[in-house]
Amino acid sequence: MKSCEVPDATIHRLPLYLEKLKLLQGIGVEDVSSRQLAESLDIKASQLRHDFHYFGGFSRPGRPYRVNKLVPALEQIIGIAIPVPTAIIGAGHLGQALANYQNLEIQGFPVRGVFDTNPKLIGLEMRGQPVRDMDELEKVIKDEKIKIAILTVPAAQAQAVADRLVKAGILGIFNFAPTDLKVPAGVALRNERLAVGIMSLSFKVKCILESQEGNIAEV
Description:
Layout (H helix, E strand, L loop, with lengths): L7 H19 L4 E2 L1 H7 L4 H9 L11 E2 H12 L7 E4 L3 H7 L2 H5 L4 E6 L8 E2 L2 E5 L3 H8 L3 E4 L3 H14 L3 E4 L12 E4 L2 H25 L1
Parallel strand pairs: 3-4, 3-7, 4-6, 7-8, 8-9
Antiparallel strand pairs: 1-2, 5-6
């Protein structure tokens, strides 16, 4: 099977496997079984083996995985064996936090452009990158070979900015604007709705509190 035909659920688990394997690598672990790796992520070993089967399995049946071989293999599959230059559009509070998030670069996504329309922000440096005017967007994307953009602009501006990014050659957009974007075929999009996420968490918290109150009432 081609890697682009892998189910989304498997794709979402690959970074979790890689993150855990890097932790094991950091403490000197050389071999790990499918059961050990799966249990550390609270999933079934059969699910992990099924996910890895899409890419050849990585080991013979009954043999453990070699951590130092599996880490670069997963990096290659995910597409971060070579760093992926990334841009941040919107240098407000969230954009600044992401620009200063060291793990972006550690995980293979060095920020090579930060952009905003606010004159008070333009020229400020964030992890060695100056905030640039949006007028420079297309040139920097081309010069730095940027293919991924993180969008943290207001909802009203998001679609227009996304359209501009696509025309400039961006192939993947990580959207933090509180609106769902539309992109053409051939462009990957992830809408990250923070408000929706925290409201979903609030629902679960409410259910826990109601359960606790019910247990107290029964006593």
